[in-house]
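Moderator note: this is an archived Q&A kept for reference. The question asked for a predicted structure of one protein chain; the sequence and the answer are reproduced below.
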Amino acid sequence: MFRILKVEEPNAIGITVDGQLMDGSIETVETCICQAMGQGKPVHLFLRDVSHIDERGRSLLSRLAGKGVQLSASGVYSSYVVAEISRGQPQSSEWGSGGAICIRKRPRED
């Protein structure tokens, strides 16, 4: 099972993923995030009940974090993956609740 939920708030867009981040779900998540980013608001991707993330899923999360998408997760497995991807980046609990790990990547200053 795979489910994606998009919530538009006045100042941000939240996207929640349940299921597995692999195969066809990767393209669905990427499309949804790209559409959300096109609206010019900050985008937050929350991995809620994600039980498996393959290498393509990890690659997608890394690319999204590099583009400024805020990543967070609940659960031991997905929280570990998000923390691993965002290692060395400042952490913020701005989006989190209930034991979620929240990571905010800051844009590079050239």
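Archived answer notes: The chain is about 35% helix and 30% strand.
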